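Folds abound. Consider this:
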Amino acid sequence: MGHKQQSIPRKGKPLVNNKDKPKPWHKRLLAKATALAAAMCVMLLPATAHADMQGVDMSNWQCGADVYNMQADFVIVGTTWGTGQVYNNCLVSGVNTDANRMIAQAQASGKKFGLYHYAMGGNPEAEARFFYTNTSNYWRHGIVALDWEMDDNPAWGNWDWVRRFMTECERLSGGVRPLLYTGPVAGTIPSDIRNRYGLWIAQYANMSPTGYQASPWMLGAYGEAMRQYSGTGVVNTWSPIDLNVFRGEAWQWDLYANPTGSTAPSQPATPAPVQPSKPQTNTNTGGISHVMQWGETIWGLAVTYDAWPLSAWHTPSGDINRYYVGDVVTYGATATTAPSNGVSKTLQWGDTVWEFATSHGYNVSQCSVPSGNINVYYVGDVVTCR
């Protein structure tokens, strides 16, 4: 497209009529190149002016991180992997068992939040359903995203897999479009995917530790909504951690989360249990003590020792879904007798155990819910802290 050049008065200097005097060729070339570069920059920026937001994304590698006091405008949490075949740190059956706490702390501290699913190349509709079933109570409240990477993903390079996953998410949610997270292949994303879904692009200038950056390297190069610019970030409560800049304001974040502006369903969908469903009949009462090794889970120990129910297992944290390599976990007669005093509450829509516990001066590990798993509770459940 052509552009008309206009004369611009030079402040503090008399105007000189140079219209009959041609500029040197190199100056004319420089002027055209500058104009072209400016036009390209405008095309790559969002249509509206904004103040960018800085935040982090977290997964099973940040179990237990202090999100409440973390310096961030937003927190995005990895919630599900594949269709449940992953066990690692606080990942149990493909579900991040610390995700509810992370998101609750983000909400309680006024941060925006999001959640993502890690693609493992299985049936795309099945993975979309696994994601939605486990997290649907958060949809339309926070951004959702698909993490599309090469590792552990035999479907890598198959863009139709992405289309099918995204389409199923839209169908299940009634119109919410997940963001697409990816990295080195950003320039090869098909136009139909690029035009329909917001992009979250990972691209690092280097691997040096860094704090938040206002204008990270290559920001906006792919017209992305969000840029992950470091995998070795440093924030006040955790490092290393992924750092991101969202190219917009809070209201634009909310539009990605809830594009129709409609309210959430009157009843939140119940999160799927973090443990596989299996009838338990054995009530082994013998004392068991075990030092946790890499890759082990409480569920796996219960199977190995035939020691049920799961609620009879005890960990140093007080939460059977939070344990670490080297922890001594026990089964049987090691439960402590709780004092008779305490506080109770019937949970309503939007309540969290973490918020209730901390508001009364308790740690979450001092609370109990009917499911026996402090990360799984529903509207109408009675939570008790002692």
